[in-house]
């Protein structure tokens, strides 16, 4: 079966890499892909928002399955566009992707169905939001309603910061229409974890939990990024907490979406906060695989990913058993100088050939391209994700950093403390 994967980051590299292992997989196309994906699949120069071109390409190539990686096209209805052409597609429809695309929708849904999440108020006018904010104390969290490339959330540690964030969103409109509404939310203390699940309606198959590192610098300092590193499993987290989150947050949310007439099919990503008393609560839902969570979760998948996707699309996900390896994985992101603000592109990457020995380390490309001489160059904020595999987190971490050190490019930055929380 030929397959089209949509997207071009580290997440999509990991999806293509996992699909490639399926004996059923034929040609794998990736639109637009990146230089690393191009080594194992056929990259197609179509952007993720060009629905007409993408559906025409899939129809022409008669692909048996389309898999959508990123959030923006999902929120814009890319799955509905493929379904209209009767092309099998794995991902949520527009009305279900709203669980990520609108924070007010997500918060109202959880509130309606009594699913744990931080207390909140929502506003569509600056004056009303400001009046409410003035009754609150820092720390407090200000969120633009819509998608904002991961930048729409400010965890304000002072009231000045909170006022600035509200002004940016609603007056300066730095996120455009995404900031037409705002959520002002109670600050949650604790440790975050991500649980991704394969979902079809009320059928939920959770994947192993992972932890991301959102801030750019060691010790969780500096601005938030798309994610600087991940690891899985979480040996320092009581499995009962993970079970609690699955039973009391993720499954009820899948059920709530069905009850609302918006059945979710795809990967439902729960961003959770484990509060100091050990109770998990919801920070966010995403309607897709996480990046870089996928890079540590899919290498642990023992089952055939293509079979799982097809079961979801064919309505037989309940019959599938999904197996995971006990190995640990750690992903260290190598980013460009300046990221998450502006950064240079086109810088030669050295040492890639010596990296990526499958078995104990895998290098997933996030933002790379080939220059005119055929050399790998940087082409994004997050450039590479180096994944180490091992019997435990310590071993996986050593392998990831060993490989990461061999890869160099001008201005390379990475966190040096990925997964250290799990070592205590
Ligand atoms: P979101 O885009 O909703 O995932 O938010 C981005 C990040 O902001 C989360 O991963 C958390 O680290 C942080 N965050 C969001 N909401 C809260 C909250 N209520 N309390 C504390 N941190 C939060
Ligand atoms: N790593 C967080 C995300 O994919 O949103």
TrEMBL record:
<keyword id="KW-0436">Ligase</keyword>
<dbReference type="InterPro" id="IPR011761">
    <property type="entry name" value="ATP-grasp"/>
</dbReference>
<dbReference type="InterPro" id="IPR020559">
    <property type="entry name" value="PRibGlycinamide_synth_CS"/>
</dbReference>
<dbReference type="Pfam" id="PF02844">
    <property type="entry name" value="GARS_N"/>
</dbReference>
<dbReference type="GO" id="GO:0005524">
    <property type="term" value="F:ATP binding"/>
</dbReference>
<protein>
    <recommendedName>
        <fullName>Phosphoribosylamine--glycine ligase</fullName>
        <ecNumber>6.3.4.13</ecNumber>
    </recommendedName>
</protein>
<dbReference type="Pfam" id="PF02843">
    <property type="entry name" value="GARS_C"/>
</dbReference>
<dbReference type="GO" id="GO:0046872">
    <property type="term" value="F:metal ion binding"/>
</dbReference>
<comment type="pathway">
    <text>Purine metabolism; IMP biosynthesis via de novo pathway; N(1)-(5-phospho-D-ribosyl)glycinamide from 5-phospho-alpha-D-ribose 1-diphosphate: step 2/2.</text>
</comment>
<dbReference type="GO" id="GO:0004637">
    <property type="term" value="F:phosphoribosylamine-glycine ligase activity"/>
</dbReference>
<dbReference type="GO" id="GO:0009113">
    <property type="term" value="P:purine nucleobase biosynthetic process"/>
</dbReference>
<dbReference type="InterPro" id="IPR020561">
    <property type="entry name" value="PRibGlycinamid_synth_ATP-grasp"/>
</dbReference>
<dbReference type="Pfam" id="PF01071">
    <property type="entry name" value="GARS_A"/>
</dbReference>
<dbReference type="InterPro" id="IPR020562">
    <property type="entry name" value="PRibGlycinamide_synth_N"/>
</dbReference>
<dbReference type="InterPro" id="IPR016185">
    <property type="entry name" value="PreATP-grasp_dom_sf"/>
</dbReference>
<keyword id="KW-0479">Metal-binding</keyword>
<dbReference type="InterPro" id="IPR013815">
    <property type="entry name" value="ATP_grasp_subdomain_1"/>
</dbReference>
<dbReference type="InterPro" id="IPR020560">
    <property type="entry name" value="PRibGlycinamide_synth_C-dom"/>
</dbReference>
<keyword id="KW-0658">Purine biosynthesis</keyword>
<keyword id="KW-0067">ATP-binding</keyword>
<dbReference type="InterPro" id="IPR011054">
    <property type="entry name" value="Rudment_hybrid_motif"/>
</dbReference>
<dbReference type="InterPro" id="IPR037123">
    <property type="entry name" value="PRibGlycinamide_synth_C_sf"/>
</dbReference>
<keyword id="KW-0547">Nucleotide-binding</keyword>
<dbReference type="GO" id="GO:0006189">
    <property type="term" value="P:'de novo' IMP biosynthetic process"/>
</dbReference>
<comment type="similarity">
    <text>Belongs to the GARS family.</text>
</comment>
<feature type="domain" description="ATP-grasp">
    <location>
        <begin position="107"/>
        <end position="314"/>
    </location>
</feature>
<keyword id="KW-0464">Manganese</keyword>
<dbReference type="InterPro" id="IPR000115">
    <property type="entry name" value="PRibGlycinamide_synth"/>
</dbReference>
């Amino acid at each position: 079966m030929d397959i089209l994967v949509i997207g071009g980051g580290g997440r999509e590299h990991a999806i293509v890499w996992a699909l490639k292992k399926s004996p059923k997989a034929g040609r794998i196309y990736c639109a637009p892909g990146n230089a690393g994906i191009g080594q194992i699949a056929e990259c197609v120069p179509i952007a993720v928002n060009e629905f007409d071109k993408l559906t025409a390409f899939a129809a022409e190539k008669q692909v048996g399955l389309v898999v959508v990686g990123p959030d923006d096209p999902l929120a814009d209805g890319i799955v509905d566009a493929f379904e209209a052409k009767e092309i099998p597609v794995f991902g949520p429809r527009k009305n279900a992707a709203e669980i990520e695309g609108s924070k007010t929708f997500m918060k109202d849904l959880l509130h309606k169905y009594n699913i744990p999440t931080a207390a909140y108020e929502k506003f569509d006018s600056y004056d009303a939001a400001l009046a409410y904010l003035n009754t609150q104390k820092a720390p407090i969290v200000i969120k633009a309603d819509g998608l904002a490339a991961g930048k729409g959330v400010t965890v304000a540690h002072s009231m000045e910061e909170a006022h600035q964030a509200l002004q940016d969103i609603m007056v300066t409109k730095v996120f455009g229409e995404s900031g037409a509404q705002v959520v002002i939310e109670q600050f949650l203390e604790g440790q975050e974890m991500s649980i991704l699940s394969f979902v079809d309606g009320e059928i939920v198959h959770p994947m192993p939990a992972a932890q991301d590192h959102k801030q750019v610098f060691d010790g969780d300092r500096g601005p938030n990024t798309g994610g600087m590193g991940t690891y899985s499993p979480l040996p320092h987290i009581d499995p009962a907490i993970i079970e609690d989150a699955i039973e009391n947050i993720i499954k009820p949310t899948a059920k709530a979406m069905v009850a609302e007439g918006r059945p979710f099919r795809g990967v439902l990503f729960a961003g959770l906060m484990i509060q100091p008393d050990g109770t998990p609560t919801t920070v966010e839902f995403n309607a897709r695989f996480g990046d870089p969570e996928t890079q540590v979760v899919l290498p642990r998948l023992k089952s055939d990913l293509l079979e799982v996707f097809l079961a979801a699309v064919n309505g037989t996900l309940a019959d599938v058993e999904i197996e995971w390896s006990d190995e640990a994985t750690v992903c260290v992101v190598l980013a460009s100088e300046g990221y998450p603000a502006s950064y240079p592109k086109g810088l030669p990457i050295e040492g890639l050939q010596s990296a990526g020995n499958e078995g104990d380390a895998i290098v997933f490309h996030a933002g790379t391209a080939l220059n005119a001489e055929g050399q790998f160059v940087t082409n994004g904020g997050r450039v590479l994700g180096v994944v180490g595999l091992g019997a435990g987190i310590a071993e996986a971490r050593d392998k990831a950093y060993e490989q990461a050190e061999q890869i160099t490019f001008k201005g390379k930055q990475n966190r040096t403390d990925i997964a250290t929380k799990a070592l205590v």
